[in-house]
Amino acid sequence: MTDQGHPFGSDHPIGVAVLGMGNVGTEVVRIIQEQSQDLRQRVGAPLVLRGVAVRRLDVDRGIDPELLTTDARALVNREDVDLVVEVMGGIDPARELIGTALTAGKSVVTANKALLADYTGELAAAAEHSRADLYFEAAVAGAIPVVRPLIQSLSGDRVNRVVGIVNGTTNFILSAMDETGADYSATLAEATRLGYAEADPTADVEGFDAAAKAAILASLAFHTRVTAADVYREGISRITSEDLETAAAVGCTVKLLAICERVPASPGEPGSAQGGKDRISVRVYPALIPRKHPLSSVSGAFNAVVVEAENAGRLMFYGQGAGGAPTASAVMGDLVMAARNKFFGGRAPGESVYAELPIAPIGDTPTRYHVNLKVADRTGVLQAVAGEFAQHGVSISTVRQEGQDEGARLVVVTHHATESALADTVAALAELESVTSVTSVVRLEGTEE
Ligand code: NAP
C-alpha cells in the first residue's frame, strides 16, 4: 500500500521468494527478472525477487549468487518476503514451508500436484485462517488454464464431467506406439533418451501423476474434497503393441485418461444408502477412444482437458502440459493475481468442498471394454465365449475373429458393464478350455452409448 492507502502506482516493492530453481523455477526467476517493467504495470507495484532456495549452491545458475540460499525456511520467514512461489516439488519440506508462509499471511503459488492431491485441505485451512491466497494453476496441465476456469468461470454452472490427457510422458509413449508400432519398452527407452521420461518413470507410467491431477480436478469440479487415494488408478505399462494394433482395427487409439464424472443418484433413491446424493467417479486408466474423439488427436507430450457442464456444454482446453517455460507461464499468472490481491485487499476464492459427494467405487462404475483373447481355432469357441459374457450379464457389442498360427484371436467389444461384472467374466473366460489366454482387457471410452 502507498502511504495514502491507495494501491495504484506504488513504488513499495512486493517481495517474492522462489523455492526451487529447477526446470520451472529457472523460468520463473527469468521472467520475474526479464519482464519486471511489464509485471510492475500489471501488478501496480514492483515485484522484487528476495531470494531463491536451492539444494546446491555450487551450480552456476546465471543469477546473482547473493540471491541463492539453501535455507528455505529462513527465506520464507524474511520480513521483506510477501509472496512465496513453491517450485521445489515433493511433500517435505514443501508442505511445511507452504504452511509456514500461509500461516504468516504470505500468499503462496505452487505447482506441486503431489502435495495438493493429499494436503489441499490443510493448506487451504491455513490460507483461510490468515486471509492469504493459495494459487495452483500450474499443478494441472502446465500452461493450460484449467484450474481457474473450473474455480471461477464455471462457478455458476454445474460440471458433470472432466476428461483429460494430463500426463505428457504417457501421451508421448502411447502416441509413438500408435505411430510406429513399436512395443512399450522400446518406446519408453526412446522417451527417456529424448528427455520425455524421467530416469525413474514410475510416477508417470503407472498413473500416479495423472491421479494427483485427477484428484485436484475432481475436487474443483464437484466441490468435494478428493485425494489421490480416492482415485482408481492404472498405468500404461501393460499396454502392448498388439493393443494399439487391435484398437486401430476398430478405428480407435489408446490414451491414458483422467476421468472425473458425476454419477447421478437414481430416481427414487432418496431412501438409499447414499441418501439420494449424486456420487463421483474419479479414475485414471488407459482406454481406447475413437479416432474421431477430440482427445484422440492430442499427440506427443501435449495435454488436453474436456469439461462438460450443464449450461456451458462441452469446453476443451489444449496446450503444453509441462516444461519449464509453459509451466512458469501458469505460475506467473498466479503470482500476478496474488500480488494484485495484496494491494487491492482482494482474495482468491478459497477451497469449496460444501457438496461432499461420496466417491463411487470402481466396481460400480460402468464402462465399455475391449477384450482380446487367444482361443483354439475350432468350431464352438465363439459360442462358449459369448456364453460366459451372457452368463455374467455383460452384453457384447461386436466380436472380431482373426486366424493365427497357433490358434485364433478374438476381439470382443462390450456394451457398458460394471468393473465387477467384467472381472467375473474374465475370470470365467480364463477357465474355459478353448481359451488359451485373455491377452488384454482395455476400457473403451468416448463412444456415444
Ligand atoms: P526440478 O527440476 O527437480 O527442480 C527442483 C528444484 O528445487 C531444484 O532447484 C532443487 O535444488 C530445489 N530443491 C529441491 N528440494 C529442495 C530443498 N529441500 N531445499 C531447497 N531447494 C530444494 O523440479 P521441476 O521440474 O522444476 O518441478 C518443480 C515443481 O513443479 C514440482 O512440484 C513439479 O511437480 C511441478 N511441475 C513441474 C512441471 C515440469 O514440466 N517440470 C510441470 C508442472 C508442474 P537443486 O537445483 O539444488 O537440486
TrEMBL record:
Pathway: Amino-acid biosynthesis; L-methionine biosynthesis via de novo pathway; L-homoserine from L-aspartate: step 3/3; Amino-acid biosynthesis; L-threonine biosynthesis; L-threonine from L-aspartate: step 3/5
Keyword annotations of the record: Amino-acid biosynthesis, Methionine biosynthesis, NADP, Oxidoreductase, Sodium, Threonine biosynthesis
Ranges for domain ACT: 370-446
Catalytic activity as recorded in UniProt: L-homoserine + NADP(+) = L-aspartate 4-semialdehyde + NADPH + H(+); L-homoserine + NAD(+) = L-aspartate 4-semialdehyde + NADH + H(+)
Swiss-Prot/TrEMBL cofactor(s): a metal cation
UniProt keyword NADP present: yes
CDD domains assigned: ACT_HSDH-Hom
Superkingdom of this protein's organism: Bacteria
Family assignment from sequence similarity: Belongs to the homoserine dehydrogenase family.
Protein known as: Homoserine dehydrogenase
